[in-house]
Amino acid sequence: MNGGFYLNSINIQLDSSVKSITRVAAMCLSGSIENGIILAQNENPSIKIFKNKIEFGKCYNPMLQGYSGCIYSYIPNFGPNFYIEYGNLIYYYDSAYKCSFWGKELDYQGIFAPTVPDNIEIFNMIYPKFS
């Protein structure tokens, strides 16, 4: 993935813990997913969205090979929510997201709701597909 990543090869799925995603949450998650794809350097990522995390699959980033735990101390530009677990890249949500128990709808609960998607291509892959 020297020249970036290819959106046509991205497979995004919802776990059974999440039934749908609101528009605002999809706007905000699009940036996190973009950062995770860039970090993992996986040419064919199979991304799974859970109620408390996003799994990006195998991490092929040479800088992170053999690393385990929070990558913030290792690569501070990507924030404290990215972790390497068993060779896989994981993004854990902070308190800005909430998944309702009965409806299983993932919603943004942060202070400043986004008005435009962080990444329009990834947003279009999530919303309205999972709304």
Which features does this protein show?
131 residues, alpha+beta, six-stranded mixed β-sheet, three-stranded mixed β-sheet, 2 helices, 9 strands, 19% helix, 26% strand
Outline:
The protein is built from 2 helices and 9 strands. By secondary structure, the chain is α+β, with helices and mostly antiparallel strands. It has one domain (10-126).
Termini Cα gap:
30 Å
Extended strand count? 9
Number of helices: 2
* Structural class determined from secondary elements: alpha+beta
Can you walk me through this structure?
The chain is built from two helices and nine strands; from the N terminus they run ββαβββββββα. It is α+β, with helices and mostly antiparallel strands and 131 residues long. It has one domain. α1 packs across α2 (120-126). The mean pLDDT is 85.
Helix-strand blueprint:
Blueprint: E1 11-14, E2 20-21, H1 23-40, E3 46-49, E4 53-58, E5 69-70, E6 82-85, E7 88-92, E8 97-99, E9 105-108, H2 120-126
Parallel strand pairs: 1-3, 2-9
Antiparallel strand pairs: 3-4, 4-7, 5-6, 6-7, 8-9
Helix pairs in contact: 1-2
